[in-house]
Amino acid sequence: MNRKQRRRLQEAFFVGIMRTSLAGACLVLGTILAVITVRGVGALSWEMVSQPPESGFYLGGGGGILNAILGSLALATGATLLAMALAVPLALFMHTYLRSGRIANGIRLVLDVMWGIPSIVYGAFGFALMVFMGLRASLLAGVLTLALVVLPILARTFDEVLMMSPKDLREATLSLGATRLEYLGVLLRQALPGLITALLLAFGRGIGDAASVLFTAGYTDALPQSLTRPVASLPLAIFYQLSTPFPEVQARAYASALVLTILILVVSLLAQLSARRLGKHVIR
Amino acid sequence: MEAEILRDGAVLTPRYDAAPGRRPGTARVIKDHLARTGMVVISAATCLLVVLIAGALLIRSLPLLRTQSLGELLTSSTWQPSHGAFGFAPFIAGSIAVTAVAMIVAVAPAIFTGIYLSEYTVARTRTRLKPLLDLMVGIPSVVYGLWGILFVVPLVRDHVGPWIDGTLGQVSPLFRQTNPSGYGLLSAGLVLGIMVFPLIVAVTEEVLRSVPHEMREAVLCLGATRWETTLCVVRRRGMAGILAAVVLGFSRAFGETLAVMMLIGNSVQVPRSLFDSAYSLPALIANNYGEMMSLPNYESALMAAALLLLAVVLLFNVAARLVVNRLTVRS
Lengths: 284, 331
Prior knowledge:
By secondary structure, chain A is mainly α.
């Protein structure tokens, strides 16, 4: 085999490996979705998603997982809103007031590192705080802890959106004599669609996170009522139903997982749509 | 006040905010300063959060650290909370082992996929494939865990296990199928590998794409094939970045809780074989929070476990992120 043939073979070999890796990943993703759908669809019913658990639910009794669905939505909404209150000013601050990139990059590093902290550590921290402040497991504690998990995700995603805003916008605005705060307003309007995408992403991550709410939000069969009461969440509902020895309850866990997956799919689809569709006031 | 109409039809709106006796625009400047101060406070608070978390966990774990030395805690393998013996060694070993399996599964395919996305695809294909990777990140850990129970565990138990046992198991006890249940290091590691795959892909791609185009063009001009060009790019700029991607993946896998907890088997022992069930640090915290108030120092031990987790993840993350940031300097 001459040199040219060998090089061509090498090229084909590695392209083959790369394509196989990518195809393998897609295949795995497909298997996950297929297994969850096929196993979950059997036990899925209107009762499942429209009713809270009745007594004896974990022994195979009637009812559904409405408590967990609403609980997860409440947790994720609260956490996303709370995180937004910090993350949005933070990200805008990096792009308006900070002139040199140094401090901004430092903040970015901290946020990236916070993104990497496992949510169980946030959960343990939340628990330590609860003990310190004499709180009990509640929606409020869950929202606070989940907000910590979501904060870096939201801030960094929004930061990436802001990075794509045109440089000219800044120069044009500031050259008109606007203060930085006024430029911030202009920038916010420019980045609003991106903000919605970031919020949806963070929301999706919030729904799926279980380790942080395990200690802090507790679990209950009642629908979420007040900030100071414990609240159920979908991932934990799946987990608890799986740990029972009864096949029919486990089948419901599969159905709950399907509900959770569909919820996540819808949210991430909305995120992608919003990234494309909204953009009335955006300069491209 | 009336609007003054200029000669060419443009309307000059009068100023409404200029209060008498104050220089026009003062309110704007004051607002600007106030906003700035507020945002500085928010930024500082966010950055201090990490310190606060570490501090709170440290304070809560102090009671245990007073009774046992750190070295003793890390190396002792006796875990008997009722006797006040808290040895983290089985959990550390379990965490490292399951993460290692995950990395062996994920690293090579993830790096190849990252290279493919950055070097071999056009922007359009990339924007089509990105949502798939995002979806893989977005699927909740509990769903991965459930998929592991329904799909991976039976696969390992009935097919992969006996096969590995029959071939490699004859050579080394590391590959002997010691555990007929299927729940163990291999199942948990496989699922964990899939979970960290998209992260490693994303970082690899980001780092490689920051290499200037001129470099590829120059190498291609000399008649190199695509793969030779890639090797050149990777050798020159990407090696550290890919390493950082792997480290980031490792630390993500190290802290993963629910999926591992559902698959690893949760038995307190230092694993001796790929099929042994084990126990990971995050699973330790998650599984025992219910009874941790009932025994002395138990809560403190779990907080110490969380602190240990945080220390490992912080160390790895900071190092890897510094490398990535240096490589992808934004112009």
